[in-house]
Amino acid sequence: MSQFMLLIRGGDEAFASFTPEQAQQALQMFYDWTEKLRSEGRYISADRLKVGGNVIRICQGHAVVDGPYAETKEGVGGYFMITAADAAAATELAKGCPVLTYGGIIEVREVAVNP
Amino acid sequence: MDTGNQTSNTADDARMDEPHSVLSPPSSALNSVVDHLFRHQAGRVVATLTRIFGWQNLELAEDVVQDSIIKAMRHWAYHGIPDNPAGWIMQVAKNEALDILRRERTLRGKQEQLARLPDYQADAAADLEILDNELYDDQLRMMFTCCHPAIARESRVALTLKTLGGFGVSEIGRAFLQSETTIAQRLVRAKRTLRQMNVPFVVPEADELPTRLDSLLEVLYLMFNEGYSAHQGEDVVRHDLCAEAIRLATLLARHPTGDLPKVHALLALMLLLAARLDTRTDEAGDLLLLDEQDRSGWNQRMMGAGMSELTQSAQGEELSQYHLEAGIAAAHAVAPSYAATDWRRVLIHYDLLLQMTGSPVVALNRAVALAMLDGPAVGLETLSEVRRMVGMENYYLLHATCAEFQRQIGEVDAARASYQRALELTSSEPGRRFLQHRIEQLTKQ
């Protein structure tokens, strides 16, 4: 079993325009998906990330801080750490995430445990 | 952490909707989700927070609970729904309310107010254990307070639905066919009254209990009837009103304070009527009268619960309006068909009810029972007396009933005129369709 990080980006604009019924449905799909990961023992940890944050880079020898990081459209809004047999299996699991149904994207990255 | 300015920023941050997170519909949409999914949890937690923080902080409690539920729903998307969602929400809401009050203390020096507050973080675990009992008692306190006779009658139901049931203002408006503004104003006035009167957040003591209980039962009765009576369209919210009235009446009846014959009688009435809710309309959404309903579709579990409550209501000497109405509902519940109903028993109940209330609507229903026993001609004769009672000449059901009796004794033209008059007097869409259908049938005869 390998570990994977699913980085969730976007989807907010569509979600923001949802009717209460659609929002409720989307939440329920999210709960179901999370519950499925848990019941199959694939769930390690997950969290939503707050908006904002800082970007730091060295510029002419000094640390320069940009922020709050404004580009939220493609920004990471949350992550899931899961286990899966391989990248293909992890990708299959990620396809079930409801954020994909309203314009979000998911980046699936394997954790490099042994260098 | 050292300046007042920073502190107030933190307060704003905590209340602010985070507009760009993964799960971030506009707050109005999420509020509606809260209304749908967490109605009862919200009501319970608001009741407890109000006891802890006092009436002057009722709005704070409502805001905090709404906030906490929205936070909870977002959190759960990543972590799954916990085993005890209500406990989770309670803990988050309590902590947030404490944070806000602490900041207020820092800002305004409200030392005294906070000095009385216990340290809830310390006994969080103990909290969850006693949560059920605590929530239970608090809901009862809240019921009595929301139905306090000092509050205007029409506001009591709205306040109870909002505070205990967690109904949204728009939902209450829909249920009562009133604008959101009207409901919101009623709520504001009701809360102001409670603050001004400094109504204590307690279950009333013995000397005060009878009048306070009557007011509470009246509110539950109105809430149920509002949901049960046939209005335009069968909005789901209307059935939710019935369910909420039953839930609150059950809470009351199971508590030592509310374990009284009158309370059981009201609960019996609601259960026996609600058992018929699903059979009250046909597939097209049109109203079906009692004699047209499919009795096999009546909810047997609810009927059973209603009959059991009725038995419990028979202890003691008191015979209330609720006893009599429940008795009538029970006669229908046990009858194999409309014709085979024990109309004698129904009539006796209506006789007593009429003596007790003097209500013209009761007099009208009594005439129907009488006609079932002694024939339509006797019914028609009784109606001529009922017609003289206040407001009856303009009540469409009087004319519809009149038409029915006239049809049965073969006075087709008179029946048509009566149906026509009834049609002119009602604006309810299902009611109008029903009457038009009757007129068409009359023409075929």
Notes on the structure:
The complex is a heterodimer of chains A (115) and B (445). Chain A is an alpha+beta fold and 115 residues long. Helix content of chain A is 29%, strand content 34%. Chain A has 3 helices and 6 strands. Chain A has helices at 12-16, 20-39, 87-94, and strands at 2-9, 43-48, 55-59, 62-66, 76-84, 105-110. In chain A, the strands form 2 sheets. Chain A has a 4-stranded antiparallel β-sheet with strand order 2-5-1-6. Chain A has a two-stranded antiparallel sheet with strand order 3-4. The longest helix of chain A is centred in the N-terminal third of the chain and has 20 residues, at 20-39. Chain A starts with a strand and ends in a 5-residue tail after the last strand. Chain B has 445 residues and is mainly alpha-helical. Chain B is 71% helix and 0% strand. Chain B has 21 helices and no strands. Chain B has helices spanning 4-15, 27-37, 39-53, 58-79, 85-108, 111-115, 124-146, 153-163, 169-176, 180-197, 209-228, 236-254, 261-274, 300-313, 321-334, 343-357, 360-374, 376-386, 396-408, 412-425, 429-444. The N and C termini of chain B lie far apart (86 Å). Chain A binds chain B through residues 8, 11-12, 15-16, 18-20, 23-24, 26-27, 30-31, 34-35, 38, 43, 46-51, 72, 75, 77-78, 80, 99, 104, and chain B through 18-26, 29-30, 32-33, 36-37, 73-81.
Helix fraction of chain B? over 70%
The most extensive interface, with participating residues per chain, is: A-B, 31 and 24 residues
Find the count of extended strands of chain B (DSSP E, 2+ residues).
0
Largest beta sheet of chain A: what is the strand line-up? 2-5-1-6
Straight-line N-to-C gap of chain A = 16 Å
Major sheet of chain B, described briefly?
none
Instruction: Name the structural class of chain B.
Output: mainly alpha
Oligomer: heterodimer
Assign the structural class of chain A, choosing from mainly alpha, mainly beta, alpha/beta, alpha+beta, or little secondary structure. alpha+beta
Shape type of chain A = flat
The general outline of chain B is elongated
Give the low-pLDDT segments of chain A.
none
Instruction: Please summarize the sheet with the most strands of chain A.
Output: 4 strands, antiparallel
Secondary-structure element order of chain A, N to C = EHHEEEEHE
Mean pLDDT of chain A: 84
Tell how many strands the DSSP assignment of chain A holds: 6
Order of helices and strands of chain B: HHHHHHHHHHHHHHHHHHHHH
Helix content of chain A: 25-40%
Beta-strand proportion of chain A: 25-35%
From the N-terminal CA to the C-terminal CA of chain B, the straight-line distance is 86 Å
